[in-house]
Amino acid sequence: MADDPIALTIKQMSVSYPSPRGWVQAVRDVSLQVKRGQMVGLAGESGSGKSTLAMAATRVLRPPSARIGGSVRIIGRDVFSLSVRELRAARWKTFAFVSQSAMNALNPVMSVRAQMRDAIRAHDSMYSSGNADKRCEEVLRIVDVPVNKLDSYPHQLSGGQRQRVVIALALILQPQLIIMDEPTTALDVVAQRAIIALIRRLQRQLGFAVLLITHDLTLVLEVADEVVIMYGGRVMETGASNELLGNAMHPYSRALIQSFPPLHGVMTRQEGIPGTPPDMVNPPEGCPFAARCILAKEVCLREMPVLVTHGNRAVACHHAAGNRTFGGSIQ
């Protein structure tokens, strides 16, 4: 469906892992959308379920290593109904995935050119050798890496250059959706900002959709169009970046914003979030953030709040203005 305005739709996704103590409920009833040409940020602490959601949605995770429920559509196609051959054809051409610790994703004994050619051959056999080389040079220029680095090996590149090469690999067959999982991990602050600025520039220039996964909420609020905040495997709040930055409704969203220094403005003292994330083998019956929330009441421990729409935003909190619905699951 080439005319579908939605690049990615995830509906009621749940993912559990087996463990010696029982099933770890990593993602619980999560829904989100990314429109074509849009950048959506998926934010939350480590262990909130962000990466698991992305890997399950792109079928990197599959039974029996995980138990998965829900549905996923990418550019109008039902991902879970694709055959292995169809899924292979869709990867890199329809959607691409930049994994966590992407700098280590490059093969240390293959040149950049060889790895790019390998990706092209694996997912699009129509490219001739000459056209493949031209495309390799083209994408390196797009990500601001000198073309002479094509015959370099990963250890001969700086950390920022390796990250740019990984992004170039994701772009090589012009996908319409790119999922980026912590794309600035292990980079210094200056390189992180440069990579995020590059991603935003390329996204606007080339028109692909992005699901950007990060734990740094202040960073994603600066670059994303919309943000989805997860905690304890559930969606806590969603909304436009500018609205969330100035007026977060969920106590967890506010605490997360306050735990990172702002990119601009006056320096302020930052505070961490006391306590630890919930045990997802035995998740709490009520709000997963209740044990760490300064506003928590008895109802928060007992009842999971529904994700309720407030104008163009949605929040799952008993204390949010206008939220009078208790119990149920995320819609």
- Give the neighbour order of strands across the main sheet: 6-7-8-3-9-10-12-11
**Form type:** globular
Question: Given the helix and strand composition, which structural class is it?
Answer: alpha/beta
Give start-end ranges of low-pLDDT stretches.
322-331
Average pLDDT across residues? 88
Order of helices and strands: EEEHEEHEHHHEHEHEEHHHEE
Number of strand segments: 12
How many DSSP H or I helices? 10
Radius of gyration of CA atoms, rounded to a whole number: 20 Å
Query: Quick one: biggest sheet?
Result: 8 strands, mixed
Proportion of strand residues: 15-25%
Helix content: 25-40%
Distance between the termini: 25 Å
